Amino acid sequence: MLPNDPLPSSEFDDWAETYDRSLAIDQFPFYGYESLLDKAAALADAKPGLSVLDLGTGTGNLAMRFAVLGCDLWCTDFSATMLEKTRLKLPAAHFVLHDLRGDWPPELNRSFDRIVSTYVFHHFELDEKVRILGSLLPRLAPGGRMIIGDIAFPDAAAREKVKIADGDEWEDEFYWLADETVPALENLGFIVEYTQVSACAGIFCIVESSH
Ligand SMILES: C[S@@+](CC[C@H](N)C(=O)[O-])C[C@H]1O[C@@H](n2cnc3c(N)ncnc32)[C@H](O)[C@@H]1O
Fold first, then answer.
1. Strands (DSSP E) along 133-172, which ranges?
2. pLDDT tens figures, 115-129
């Protein structure tokens, strides 16, 4: 059964202290976590000085990959405790407490060369994912791209296979299915390329079709 409501920010506040330790356990949904983040950073192809917005930054593991490149880094999350964890690791970054489902915060009223996110959007239903990504289109600088990595499958059959194989580890959330997501994003005027990185995770590389 799918959850009726996404998790509240307090759940992530509580998780912040142990989050990095939970990634070390090589089981669903985090097996292949480091490879997914490495691949997302590679697909972003960021250069020193480019502006990078990391949505739902958590403890900053993806953001760190752009900080070491010398990017101008902006991190958002709706959990103040998660943001604080990242601030300790990356004091030079900009931080904005923001719920992705809400109005765009005035602090982020500018464009970004890269908009990135990992393991966040599976908290939202497909319509919400598409609505949020569509609203980000005007925030992309010319020639910019969005890189969204998450728990994702090529189609429902692939999801069912992993669900059966992972047994008790499996939890139902709004995992991405590439075959329904890619056309929905293309309808918004994006060009989308999907890469499956592990059995349970993949990356959407999204650019505006006029780019
Ligand atoms: C599983 S963690 C992923 C963290 C990090 N991006 C990573 O790859 O390790 C999900 C993160 O998304 C944040 N998040 C969940 N729902 C959100 C929302 N509606 N708005 C903003 N952040 C949200 C959580 O607070 C948490 O930090």
1. 140-153
2. 999 999 999 999 999
